[in-house]
Amino acid sequence: MDIDYDKPDLDKPCFGHPTLSDTDVASQKPVQDCVIDKIDQFENELKNPQTSAAEKLLALKFVLHFVGDIHQPLHAATRTDPDVQHEDFGGNCVGILHGAARDPERLHSYWDTTLVMAALGKDENQAAVSLMSLVTPDSNQQWSKGTPEEWAQESYRLAKSSAYAGVIDTAPVQTDFVFKEFGGGPDKRCGPSKVYRIDPSYNQQAIKVVKEQLAKAGVR
């Protein structure tokens, strides 16, 4: 759900909100769509007694995956660097260094994986116990409200206030770093990328955001 950092518009990243025909199944069409539409489509399939068992299983898997995904702030925002007029694809083309690190990490993957490991560790059972401690009767009632569109907007605001802030508003330590694709060649989406060094306070507040967003996703 790549909401533009400077010009938030929910229609553009949702390709105009295409609709399903009576014969379409949500796991196959529309080819171009966004997460808030797909959550609604899969939810409707789960409610529909005419949906096949195989499609209902896919719908359940996608709902679980997408409701989690929509709570990652950088899954709900993308920014165009005003200096080079190049999109960063949700922080995938922004490099960061933290601690004593010398090799830049993508800002997006930092939020996807590194911060999650720092916040909760690798033990899934312990992670679940830690997150459940945040789910009080009051938070459960509050977090249960809302729609996928509102959750995406919430993540977009966190992208601006917690993911990008403390990075893009500092001076880069490098402006010509080249990220590699999985195959080893240069990531053609990015071109020369800026690299920023983040301070420990960034990590501390980001970990709090990660924990709360994961707890919200579990409730929702």
Explained architecture:
There is one protein chain. With 220 residues, this protein is of the alpha+beta class. The chain has a domain at 76-219: P1 Nuclease. 44% of the residues lie in helices and 8% in strands. The chain is built from 7 helices and 6 strands. A 4-stranded mixed beta sheet has the order 4-3-6-5. Helix 1 packs antiparallel against helix 2 (53-69). It is globular, with a radius of gyration of 19 Å. The protein starts with 34 loop residues before the first helix and ends with a helix. The mean pLDDT is 94.
Brief summary:
It is built from 7 helices and 6 strands. The protein is an alpha+beta fold and 220 residues long.
> Helix count?
7
Strand order of the largest sheet: 4-3-6-5
* Uncertain runs: none
CATH superfamily (homologous) name of the domain at 76-219: P1 Nuclease
Alpha-beta classification: alpha+beta
Q: Tell me which CATH architecture of the domain at 76-219 applies here.
A: Orthogonal Bundle
The residue-averaged pLDDT reads: 94
CATH topology of the domain at 76-219: P1 Nuclease
What keyword list fits this structure?
7 helices; 8% strand; 220 residues; alpha+beta; two-stranded antiparallel ribbon; globular; single chain
Give a topology summary.
Blueprint: H1 35-47, H2 53-69, E1 80-81, E2 86-87, E3 95-97, E4 105-106, H3 107-120, H4 124-132, H5 137-143, H6 148-164, E5 174-177, E6 193-197, H7 200-219
Parallel strand pairs: 3-6
Antiparallel strand pairs: 1-2, 3-4, 5-6
Helix pairs in contact: 1-2, 3-7
